[in-house]
Amino acid sequence: MSTDTLSPVSTLCLAILQCGEATGYEIKKESVEGDYRYFVDASYGSIYPALARLANDGYVTVREETHPGRPIRKIYSITPEGTDALIAALSQPPGPDQRRSRFLLVAKSAPHLPAAVVKAAVDERRRLLTEEMEHLRRITADYSDEPSVAWIVGYGLACMGTSLDYLEKNADDLVAIAKPPLADAAE
Amino acid sequence: MSTDTLSPVSTLCLAILQCGEATGYEIKKESVEGDYRYFVDASYGSIYPALARLANDGYVTVREETHPGRPIRKIYSITPEGTDALIAALSQPPGPDQRRSRFLLVAKSAPHLPAAVVKAAVDERRRLLTEEMEHLRRITADYSDEPSVAWIVGYGLACMGTSLDYLEKNADDLVAIAKPPLADAAE
DNA sequence: CCGAGATATATCGAACCGGGATATAGCCAC
DNA sequence: GTGGCTATATCCCGGTTCGATATATCTCGG
């Protein structure tokens, strides 16, 4: 093993490949639209280099399919060494979740922002959460045979439910904190 | 305005400076230990270049304090243009939260992992969540005069509470999904 | 039926970011 | 008094993002 610690994207690629071979394009789609989208995110610029490194380290193999005209399809498969590396990587303590929230930055800055901006952010967030939860509920049926996906979806629904609930109950308080639109004489 | 879209780190710096002048060191501490740590994260390697860009664009000013021996203290203050840029940046729809969760990757991969690994991850996560919530409860009193911080802390506590609750109720199910330690004959 | 746009697929490059190493000088603990 | 921590900034390497580019098929609106 040339590197003892796998980068997050490399770990993600191995985890996806553990469920079956895939192309870089499919891995990206999985991490943007698929079951993984709620807790990872990766772009071409990180996935393809990561796959190249993994191939170089012997953790994945590549098989090329040439379709006339189209770019070469590079299909990646995990190797036994790759499986070992994945298990080793996932065996390390996971550490806290990392959350990046533009919305919470707006909330924190509410005292310095016009009330309309705060209100728009709250509404947008409520909309997004509602949409997301609907989507999760819709796909629950499709994946009921994969229990780990069901577990994760349940987790996501629980967290988003609480989030939405807090938002609906406390939206007015937050907007009230914002800078009142009329009295801007006093900074 | 030379750039119409601020980078996330630049936005963060402006948001912090909006509450008062600070050095790069203090901004970093705020984003790692302070009120912002739950939803952003930034390092020296991103903060200092961002501050330089902001200064270059006229969004912040720098004042230098030379203490004998120590490195020069560069104290940054936001300008009116900076405030405008901050408000403009925060006025754009915030988009969904981004969550990076090593733990959920473990959960998703549970069928391919030894039960002990899954159990360790669950325990570690429970520990982290409990610690984090205790810390939040402790600081609630200190910041009761800043209502936006109180709002965010309430939000965080609600989400973490649900998270912990789901974890405690469903931990066994997840561990049960993991690969049983004895029967590893059939892959 | 023709062109606009989407889909599938990979690559490249510039800018940006993360984490560690480096420098320095008081202060605290042992 | 030595080693480690705090305060403070800078530099660098590798990893990451995001957009541009290439190209062939397929689909949809006009």
Structural summary, described in words:
2 copies of one chain form a homodimer. Chain A has 187 residues and is mainly alpha-helical. Chain A is built from 7 helices and 4 strands. Chain A has helices at residues 8-17, 24-33, 44-56, 80-91, 102-108, 115-142, 147-177, and strands at 22-23, 60-65, 73-78, 98-100. Chain A has a 3-stranded antiparallel β-sheet. In chain A, strand 2 (60-65) and strand 3 form a beta hairpin. In chain A, helix 2 (24-33) crosses helix 3 and helix 6 (115-142) runs antiparallel to helix 7. The longest helix of chain A is centred in the C-terminal third of the chain and has 31 residues, at 147-177. Chain A is elongated, with a radius of gyration of 22 Å. The N and C termini of chain A lie far apart (59 Å). Strand 4 (98-100) of chain A pairs antiparallel with strand 4 of chain B. Chain B binds a DNA duplex (30 and 30 nucleotides) through helix 2 and helix 3.
Main attributes?
homodimer, about 190 residues, mainly alpha, 3-stranded antiparallel β-sheet, 7 helices, 4 strands, elongated, DNA-binding
Query: Strand share of the residues of chain A?
Result: 5-15%
Oligomer: homodimer
Roughly how much helix do the residues of chain A carry, as a percent range? 55-70%
- Overall pLDDT confidence of chain A: 89
Instruction: Give the topology string of chain A: H per helix, E per strand.
Output: HEHHEEHEHHH
The structural class of chain A is: mainly alpha
Largest sheet of chain A: 3 strands, antiparallel
C-alpha Rg of chain A, in Å? 22 Å
What does the overall shape of chain A look like? Answer: elongated
Q: Compute the number of strand runs of chain A.
A: 4
Q: Largest interface, counted with CB-CB under 8 A?
A: A-B, 63 and 63 residues
Strand order of the largest sheet of chain A: 1-3-2
Distance between the termini of chain A: 59 Å
